[in-house]
Structure formats: structure tokens, C-alpha cells
Amino acid sequence: MALPVTQKNSITVQTTLPVQPYPLISDRNPIKTQRLIIRPFQASDIDALYELRLQPEVMKYTKKGVPDINRTESQEILDKMMGSPGNDMYNFAICDGKTNVLIGTGGCHLPVGEVGWPEIGYMFRKEAHGKGYATEFVNAFLDAYWVLPRVRTEVVVDAETVELSEGVTAAKECLGAITTADNKPSHSVLRKTGFERVKVFEVLGNHPQEEGDMTLWAWTVKWPSKAT
Ligand SMILES: CC(C)(COP(=O)(O)OP(=O)(O)OC[C@H]1O[C@@H](n2cnc3c(N)ncnc32)[C@H](O)[C@@H]1OP(=O)(O)O)[C@@H](O)C(=O)NCCC(=O)NCCS
């Protein structure tokens, strides 16, 4: 999804962002919800992660677009998540609360996303769809994300993501998300967790099964809409 067709109108704003680096993986405590454990990745997640990343119905909606070719590819992802690159993301294994087995992954995987703001992503194995797990995850994730230590900073963001009056360049911090225009379950998750659609744009599809332009939707949630 890398090649933009719709032109961007960028603007520099004063805002806040989580202090970098994020808390180290080794210092991140599991987040428990009613049915889920949201925790750092561990070596024993490989079988479940590979199974998840083999599901075409799931991978279709990821940036990669297609299942992993072999276990080695999934292992490389897991190694990245558990190693030092994982410290630069706020990304988690999402596990069944009773068995601690990975059923999905999610979190803030991009510090500078498509519309300039950090970006959230998530995916669950198909057997877990339609049970409200993604909504439960995003709500818990936002609670944890908004209370991370903050720093005041300048960010270049898409002008359509901020409301600015003339001469004012301060903006409330946002977290972004990108979906394809047809991903109704994900739209529903984002709406239920406080995100609003802020932009519709076209990119040159680079998924192997896609040809021509692809319509994407950009979403943002503003700090601290979920903080309690
Ligand atoms: C998007 C995704 C994470 C949603 O997970 P989920 O746990 O099913 O989400 P929830 O149950 O919390 O909410 C999804 C909503 O869509 C509905 N839904 C779920 N699967 C659906 C399907 N296959 N067809 C139609 N509706 C569906 C749910 O019933 C629910 O509806 P509601 O809002 O009326 O309650 C999951 O479908 C997935 O992993 N998809 C593949 C990867 C992906 O798309 N990631 C997001 C990229 S932006």
C-alpha cells in the first residue's frame, strides 16, 4: 500500500506523543481483560503465530496481503517482536485469557503512520472473529497507551486529521488507523472504540491479488477520548 495516488496536504503541529523509547519489552506487564491476556511475545508463540499468519482471510487485510510462505517467515516476525525492534513498537501478543495461547496480535506498530500519527493495527485468527475480541483488545490497548509518559513535540501530519483555526498550530494528539474501504468488521471495531474516519484516499494496490487503485480509509482517535 505504499504508493499514494491521492495528494497529501501536510501540516506541522505542536502536540504530544509517547516518550521514546517505549517501556522496554522486559518491563511491560501483561494487560488482563475479561477474556484476554495482552502480553509481550514469547518464543512459545511460534506455532500459534504461524497458524494465524497462514490464514489468507486474515492476511488479506494486512500490509503484506498474503500468508507467510513458511514457518521461517513467521519466526522472523516473532524474533523481531521479541528482539530490539520490538522495543520500538508497542505491539503485543493477544491471548486467550484462560489458556494464554496467542489468538491475535495488535498494537502500535508504526511510530509515523500513513497520516503522520502513530498507527494501531490488529489481527485475530478467523476462529476468533465476531466475538468482540478486537473491540475488547482496542479498548484495553487505548487505556494503556494513553497513560504512557508523554513529551511535547512537533509532528508533520495530514491536515485532514486536525482542526486548526488560522494561526493556531497546536493539535490534540491522535492515534491513527488505516483500513481498506471494504473491511467492515474493522470499521466497526474502530467506531466502537472512539475512532472517527478522517480521510478517504487512493493508493496503487500492491497486494498480489489486487490490481489498480485501492481505496483506503484513515481513522483517528483523539487523546484522551478513552482515558478514564
Ligand atoms: C478486523 C478484525 C480484527 C475484527 O475482529 P473481531 O474480534 O471479529 O471484532 P469484533 O467482534 O470486536 O467486532 C467486529 C464487528 O464486525 C462483525 N464481524 C466480525 N466478523 C465479521 C464478518 N466476517 N462479516 C461481517 N461482520 C463481521 C462482528 O459481529 C462485530 O459486529 P458489531 O460491531 O455489530 O458487534 C478481524 O476480523 C480480523 O482479524 N480480520 C483480519 C485482519 C484485519 O482486518 N485487521 C485489521 C486491519 S485494519
Structure described in brief:
The protein has 228 residues and is α+β, with helices and mostly antiparallel strands. The protein contains six helices and eleven strands. The protein has helices at 46-53, 56-59, 71-82, 84-87, 133-146, 184-192, and strands at 3-4, 10-18, 31-32, 36-39, 90-96, 102-110, 119-124, 150-158, 174-180, 196-204, 213-222.
Q: What do you see in this structure?
A:
It comes from Pseudogymnoascus verrucosus. GO terms for molecular function: acyltransferase activity, transferring groups other than amino-acyl groups. InterPro entries: Acyl_CoA_acyltransferase, GNAT_dom, N-acetyltransferase. Strand 6 and strand 7 form a beta hairpin. 22% of the residues lie in helices and 32% in strands. The protein has a single domain, classed as Aminopeptidase (3-Layer(aba) Sandwich). The chain has 228 residues and is α+β, with helices and mostly antiparallel strands. The strands form three sheets. The protein has a five-stranded antiparallel sheet with strand order 3-4-5-6-7, with helices on both faces. It has a four-stranded antiparallel sheet with strand order 1-10-11-9. The structure holds coenzyme A.
